[in-house]
Amino acid sequence: MLTENRHKKLTSITVSQCLTSVVLLASILVLISGCQGGGDIKNKSPSSSTEVNGTRGYIDERNKPIVPYTGAERSGAEVYALYCATCHDRTTQGAPLPDDDIEWLRRLKKGNEVLVKNVLNGYKELMPVKGGCRNCSEKEVRAAVDYIFMRSGIKNTE
To answer: Is the whole-model pTM more than 0.85?
Structure first.
């Protein structure tokens, strides 16, 4: 009887230890897979401590010449899908998601023109100039802002 109880205790400890190991390993894998590029920190672009990871690639783009866009005017949905979604469709970037009506209402309280100005000019190194679409027209940027409000369900009356 004593041996059987000792065996059960050892088995339960082993199962518990295995589960802990699996959870720890899964956590490490999630952290590793979330790293962007990894590698040697000396080869990374310099960045501000306030910069969000999702905008780091934009640093490299800022110093390149702007390639003019000569196609048909892009809709708000197209601009959003090509540029805005990089940060706004991920919860890891800190940017409000399209369906986060509370955050969008908070921004809209400052006024639609303030919001559009922040997108056009960039905002605190968190929002790149023109949301990263450097060859977007002001009309296309406004259409993207309107598209985000439409997706959030908020009526932008301005």
So the answer is: no
